[in-house]
Amino acid sequence: MCRFSIGCTSSSLRVTYMNLYLGIDIGSVTIKLALIDEGGRFIDSVYLRTQGRPILAMQRGLKLLKGSLLENAHMSGVGATGSARYLAAAIIGGDVVKNEITSQVIATLRCVPEAETIIEIGGQDSKIIILRRDMVADFGMNTVCAAGTGSFLDHQAARLGIAIEDFGDRALRSRNPVRIAGKCTVFAESDMIQKQQMGHRTEDILYGLCQALARNYLSNVGLGREIRMPVVFQGGVAFNHGMVRAFKEALETEDVIVPLHHEAMGAIGAALLALEEMTTRKTKTEFKGFEISEAEYKTSPFECQACPNLCEIAQISLDGQVIARCGGRCDMWERKPAAQTAGGRSARTWR
Q1: Cβ neighbours of residue 133 under 8 Å, at least 6 residues apart?
Q2: CA atoms of 304 and 351, how far apart (whole Å)
Q3: How many domains is the chain built from?
Q4: Are residues 37 and 140 in the same domain?
Q5: Does residue 248 form part of some domain?
Q6: Same domain membership, residue 221 and residue 131
Q7: Using alpha carbons only, what angle is made at residue 174 by residues 173 and 175, rounded to the nearest 5 degrees?
Q8: Cα–Cα distance measured from residue 332 to residue 336, given in angstroms and rounded to the nearest whole number
Q9: Would you state the pLDDT for residue 345?
Q10: Does a structural domain hold residue 6?
Q11: 208: Cβ–Cβ under 8 A, 6 or more apart, which residues?
Q12: What is the CATH number of the domain that holds 47?
């Protein structure tokens, strides 16, 4: 059970909220926005798929949050995390930009102080974080193989003609799960086709996929790491009850905790970091206001020649002024303020 002072709130409490803090966790597949108050209490969150258009998803998320706020609400700080955190901070006006590991840990320890291991699986990557005495002792990430991520389940559910929202409940109906080769999406798909042709029930194939992902995660991301209990399972994949059961079986424990707001833990952590930073700094937030949800941004590409990768960089402009850049294999352009160009030279030849 989640022990957040960040928990569900009643409408009678909402009238007292004045200073709010926004956290944004934006990745390649989904965006999560979370609001907390100055006491660290959870107010609201939004979970959306980016559908390849992160700025539009961000704008839509802001509109949804704005619709739930009262007139006396004031945004006092913004934190950004996720793979596109620098883009989010540039668009919205971020006060704090932190990596996913830090943000996930801050929110988890606020929710489950005794946590020893964090399993986080998102759309395109998966992470394991080993905690000892409230500190990060080790962590690992998988950003290469899709067979260990939520997109693996999404793809297979679509191939079977099943809504991903129904995946977990149907998997729990399995009586005799089949063994699926889960180390590679290609092998998994061919294995599934074979099992279907053999007449196995769809539910048994679905739960076999859950087991395959859990095995792949533990033998890849968790390889060589001591996984102690309690384990906190978070990220969008934790919506899948079949995956929760599969991890409990694979770890031979019932001590797998799924927090109440598991899908938004990164965003909640970013909001908590913004609260801490702004309380300490005592300066005005850089938040640009909810009006940016109506702004029209333009994107133009250019080729970075700083190394042999020759990455195509997306340049984001508003009213003719470049405000952000993103898209490279490294974060060189994302970290550099858009207004700055070395020696006044074209961004195309910047070193």
Answers
A1: none
A2: 9
A3: 3
A4: no
A5: yes
A6: yes
A7: 115
A8: 6
A9: 34
A10: no
A11: 174, 177, 178, 179, 180, 195
A12: 3.30.420.40
Per-residue pLDDT of 279-322, as tens digits, reads 998 889 999 999 999 989 888 888 888 888 888 888 888 888 88
Mean pLDDT over 164-172 rounds to: 93
Give me the DSSP letters along 257-312.
E--TTGGGHHHHHHHHHHHHHHHHH--------GGGGG---EEEEEE--SSTT-PE
What one-character-per-residue DSSP string does 164-224 give?
HHHHHHHHTT-SSPPP---SSHHHHHHHHHHHHHTT--HHHHHHHHHHHHHHHHHHHTTTT
Output the pLDDT for position 343: 34
**Sheet of 74-81, strands arranged across:** 42-49, 30-37, 19-26, 74-81, 96-97
pLDDT reported for residue 347: 40
> Is residue 328 located within the same domain as residue 236?
no
Say whether both 307 and 217 belong to one domain: no
Q: Is 161 helix (H, G, I), strand (E, B) or coil?
A: coil
Q: For residue 147, what are the contacts with CB-CB under 8 A and spacing of at least 6?
A: 182, 183, 184, 185, 188, 212, 213, 216
Domain range for 307 is: 298-349
Contact 128, 221 (CB under 8 A): yes
302 and 290 in a common domain: no
Residue 3 lies in a domain: no
Indicate if the pLDDT at residue 143 is higher than 90. no
Assigned domain for 4 exists: no
Q: C-alpha 274: how far from its chain's center?
A: 17
Query: pTM for the whole thing?
Result: 0.86
